[in-house]
Amino acid sequence: MLKITNLHANIEDKEILKGINLEINPGEVHAIMGPNGSGKSTLSSVIAGKEEYEMTEGEIIFEGGDLTELDPEERSHKGIFLSFQYPVEIPGVSVTNFMKASLNAHRKANGQEDMPANEMLKMIREKSELLEMDRKFLSRSLNQGFSGGEKKRNEIFQMAMLNPKLAILDETDSGLDIDALKIVANGVNKLKSKDNAVLVITHYQRLLDYIVPDFVHVMLDGKIVKSGTKELAYELEERGYDWIKQEQL
Ligand code: ADP
Ligand code: MG
Ligand code: MG
Question: Which Pfam family, any one of them, does this sequence belong to (predicted)?
Fold first, then answer.
């Protein structure tokens, strides 16, 4: 599904990603862990195509096609979803109306008609129940006055509605109390299928108790320096990152 080869990327002429290789197949859950500043968010932003980042080397292939020339919206229409670390507030636009507009924009980009209103409402009801969202929440202005937990839950709701092929969740756990974390993780788990993949970025092992990864990768200074299974996440929790840095010397 996703194949990243020798990816180098800069921000403001400073090299942040220094040769990333990563392959994700349908049905897999991958986690990227690493200390603050190691380039995790840069990687997710580069996959999503954010314009401030400059790819200088390597390639990103998604479902057989090169992503390099596509803007973030086109990538999203192809089925790549990036959770928003800093979500925008849109006064006067409700969660429901925003969701209807984005879902229909996705359908249009893929040559489909608007979803019939009754079908849309049914889907909104199903997905919001799945995530144990309060009905009143759906009529509130997007992100306005939302708590950290509400913002995260809304992100997962958007993900549930759009049903992306590849969902990238960057620090979805920060700012969540344990109950909200469980609901979010539960939502992600219910959406998992053999056809889609999830990339979870976190610096805490905690989230991975609930979203169990098939593969764990450690990122240090712009490179994936170690990969393993979920046991690696426990080892990192216990021992930190210094031993991996030592291995690199
Ligand atoms: P992580 O998500 O692992 O904490 P980031 O990808 O956010 O790491 O950051 C990697 C490096 O890139 C850091 O040194 C950070 O200071 C730098 N960086 C990230 N975004 C910007 C930016 N917009 N402008 C300048 N430097 C940035
Ligand atoms: Mg950071
Ligand atoms: Mg980050």
Answer: ABC_tran
Question: Exposed/middle/buried for 236, CB within 10 Å: 0-12, 13-18, 19+?
Answer: buried
Distance 223 CA to ligand 3 centre (A): 14
What tokens appear for 192 in the block?
């998992």
Residue 249 has pLDDT above 90, yes or no: no
pLDDT tens digits along 128-168: 988 888 889 999 998 888 887 788 888 889 999 999 999 99
Q: CA 231, CA 229: separation in Å to the nearest integer?
A: 5
Q: Is the CB of 41 under 6 A from ligand 1?
A: yes
pLDDT at 100 over 90: yes
CATH number of 2-248: 3.40.50.300
- Please give the model's pTM, rounded to 2 decimal places: 0.92
CA-nearest residue, atom 23 of ligand 1: 11
